[in-house]
Amino acid sequence: MTAITTSLTPAQIAALSTAAVAGWGTANIAGLTTAQVAALTTAQITALTTAQVVALTTSHIAALTNAELAALTTADVAALTTAQIAAITTAGIGALTTSQAAALTTAQIAALTTTQTVALTSADIGALGTAQAVALTTGQVAVLTTAQAKALSTASIAALTTAQLVALSTGDIAALTTGQIAALGTAQAAALTTGQVAALTSAELAALSTADVAALTTAQIAALTTGALAGLTTAQTIALTTAQVAALTTGQMAVISTGDIAALTTAQAVALTAGQVAVLTTAQAKALTSADLAAFSTAKIVAITTADVAALTTGQIAALTTAQAAALTTAQIVALSVASIAALTTADVAALTTAQIAAITTAGIGALTAPQFMGLTTAQVVAMTTIQIPAITKLDLAAMTTADLVALTTTQLQALTTAQIPSLTTAQMTALPTVSLAGFSTSQIPAFTTAQIASLNSAQSAALFH
Description:
Blueprint: H1 2-7, H2 10-15, H3 18-22, H4 26-31, H5 34-39, H6 42-47, H7 50-55, H8 58-63, H9 66-71, H10 74-79, H11 82-87, H12 90-95, H13 98-103, H14 106-111, H15 114-119, H16 122-127, H17 130-135, H18 138-142, H19 146-151, H20 154-159, H21 162-167, H22 170-175, H23 178-182, H24 186-191, H25 194-199, H26 202-207, H27 210-215, H28 218-223, H29 226-229, H30 234-239, H31 242-247, H32 250-253, H33 258-263, H34 266-271, H35 274-278, H36 282-287, H37 290-294, H38 298-303, H39 306-311, H40 314-318, H41 322-327, H42 330-335, H43 338-343, H44 346-351, H45 354-359, H46 362-367, H47 370-374, H48 378-382, H49 394-399, H50 402-407, H51 410-414, H52 426-431, H53 434-437, H54 450-454, H55 458-464
């Protein structure tokens, strides 16, 4: 029978009934020439038994037309040896139906060459089960096209080993759907290379679970592009570890939304470096909670730009500790708004250095409340410049302790305006030593009230009207 079979012409082969072909023995099948195999009709191919299909040589398999391959039953496809699978042409692989692709065994999947892998249609890739996806070698995964990678089911993506995931090209990573990204486990997310992380889009980053974000290494965090980081959700921001927060580059800090800044926990805010604090925008600085700002080290307080200091709310300023207030640079003191000066606690004002006091603007001096002014130390009062003295409000001047008033230098006393002088209390007047009274200028003397003059003793009067 084998001899008879091999003697048939391709035309005679094609003319045989499906029953006749199905009746051939495996030896008859194996003895066919490649031309005879190529002559088989799709109906004849479909009629072949699984045993007959397995009997086909690798040369036979390579000779099958796309139509013949597509005619194989799923059972026949699943029965093919790995050698037969490797013998299928790339065109033949591309002709496989999704049902046939889904029927491939894990061993057959692993036997595909990289060129055959690329030849699979996106539909075929999408038809693969999780076991088949896991059977893909890293070499096969590495050659997947972006369309093929995008076609993998979310279940398949979730089933990939970390080695397989790392094998995906950066182009493939960027092409994944948000659904595929959301399917990643924490171990998978943590395994992504920095190059793959850098390829993530803002939509993909936003699709990562909070657990995935928290699992990223500091190197991965630093690798995120500013474009991707702009997609970080508030929930993801809260999930960042303190180490991750500290790992953000200054460039990345600029794209963190004010909503995300406001959502930072105190621990996360404390994790910010002085360098990161220095690049905060005014909107970002203003978004920090009072608790966050109060938790900053003095080094971080000093790192806040003068523009940011000027933008801080009165609530934030009021939350500063005395140590933080005392650490402010003179440039930061100058930048404080009038409302901010008034918002400082009396303890904060009392903690300011003499250099800081001298740096307060005249508008700031005028904004000091009576309690703040009363809380000033003598050294602070003496540190006021002659430009600041005229800015003291009448209420504040009247609230000045006699010790502070007595400590003022002649130059400072001479800086008092004629409008301020009448606000001095009689108690303050009687406390002034003769040397201080003698320091007032002739232009100031007419401003003293009769009550003030009446409160002076003879020596003081003589000194004032010298």
